[in-house]
Amino acid sequence: MIKLKIVGLGVSLPDKILTNSDLEKMVDTSDQWIIERTGIKERRIAESKTACSDLVIDATKQALQHAGLKASDLDTLIVGTSTPDTIFPSTACWVQKGLGISGSAAFDISAGCTGFLYAMEIASNLIATGKSKKVLVAGVEILSKITNYEDRSTCVLFGDGAGVCILVPTEEDRGIMSSNWGADGNLAELLYMPAGGSRIPATCESVEKKLHCLHMAGNEVFKNAVREMEGAAFTALKDANLTADDIDLFIPHQANIRIIDATIKRANIPSEKTSITIDKYGNMSAATIPVALYEAYHEGKIKDNSKILFAAFGAGFTWAAMILKW
Ligand code: UT7
To answer: Which domains does the chain have, with CATH numbers?
Structure first.
């Protein structure tokens, strides 16, 4: 086990709510279709002037207060995101600037919806080697800024938000019991933003063709998501010598309630042990897991020594699972 402790949690969710009935006025869709096919009722939308670092800074201030730490105590800042403030420098560096600190290592992880678990994997190994002692791990997205609100197959799904946690080493019997991660870049084009990088830099044509928006082959993503989330969760249980019965809480990535239902059915995880936030926030990609963790903690669902299973799947394709003993 990698011995570590989460000492601070924070979230930032924009005030503005976009409901299914708002979307009915924008595209040919219905509240009934969205709820039945995705489980989403509403999602949060950031103000036009807000960037991801603003949400992370807000969430980090809460987490620091929770942990009884100062921003200058953080030695490593890792941000999982697909919607960074800028391609460079990293969102983590903008967070550093906003917190008024310098010197700590700061970098982003691009792993789509798996970004938070990839960041946790790196953070826990930095702690295990003694390289880092106080690590901020964030998952954040402002997907509304890369969503095509004329495409009903994607625009009903996504929302904005951030969740963070602060990790420290501990001598106590708690931490990461097992973890695994993987990717299959051969399937990259099933979920991606085509333009804005070196392949298709920004031009008037790329903007007109909406190539700076998220493109997704929903059905293919769905099938792969169920298979890989279940596989990753199963591997994490096996590697920790646990069964689904030993798990106190399952926090899956929240992309579609039907993906979560299919995953828990296949992995034999009871629905009452599964954390669900998709109805309120939609798919916030890298932010869904830390936001669900924060909510579960504040709802009293996490106790000392609780065993929490996390699993995620996203663009890349990427996937990961982790078991944390709280
Ligand atoms: O975060 C990780 C990455 N993302 C995901 O994991 C998302 C994975 N995919 C999904 O969640 C689902 O595939 C979607 C929610 C995107 C789509 O659900 P689906 O049940 O796979 O629908 P579909 O694409 O097979 O479309 C079924 C029908 C189509 O109409 P026809 O061709 O049968 O007449 C669509 O045009 O539903 C139609 N449709 C809609 N109808 C009303 C698609 N989007 C909408 C909509 N409102 N918003």
So the answer is: 2-173 (3.40.47.10), 176-272+288-325 (3.40.47.10)
Which pTM does this prediction carry? 0.97
Q: Is the CB of 166 under 6 A from ligand 1?
A: no
CA proximity to 77, closest of 143, 126, 113, 114: 126
Mean pLDDT of 20-24: 98
**Ligand 1: does its nearest atom lie under 6 Å from the Cβ of 222?**
yes
> Which residues have a Cβ under 8 Å from the Cβ of 114 and sit 6 or more positions away?
80, 181, 253, 286, 312, 313, 314, 316, 318, 319, 320
In angstroms, the Cα distances linking 243 to 231, 238, 270 are 14, 7, 12
Per-residue HEC secondary structure of the chain comes to CEEEEEEEEEEECCCCEEEHHHHHCCCCCCHHHHHHHHCCCEEECCCCCCCHHHHHHHHHHHHHHHHCCCHHHCCEEEEECCCCCCCCCCHHHHHHHHHCCCCCEEEEECCHHHHHHHHHHHHHHHHHCCCCCCEEEEEEEEHHHHCCCCCHHHHCCECEEEEEEEEEECCCCCEEEEEEEEECHHHHHHEECCCCCCCCCCCHHHHHCCCCCCEECHHHHHHHHHHHHHHHHHHHHHHCCCCHHHCCEEEECCCCHHHHHHHHHHHCCCHHHECCCHHHHCECHHHHHHHHHHHHHHCCCCCCCCEEEEEEEECCCEEEEEEEEC
259 confidence band (pLDDT: 50, 70, 90) = very high
Q: Which of 165, 224, 253, 256 is catalytic?
A: 253
Supply the pLDDT for residue 200: 98
User: What is the reported pLDDT for 292?
Assistant: 98
User: Average pLDDT of 201-208?
Assistant: 97
Average confidence (pLDDT) over 227-254 = 96
Mutate to test the pocket of ligand 1, among 153, 190, 260 (most ligand atoms within 8 A of CB): 153
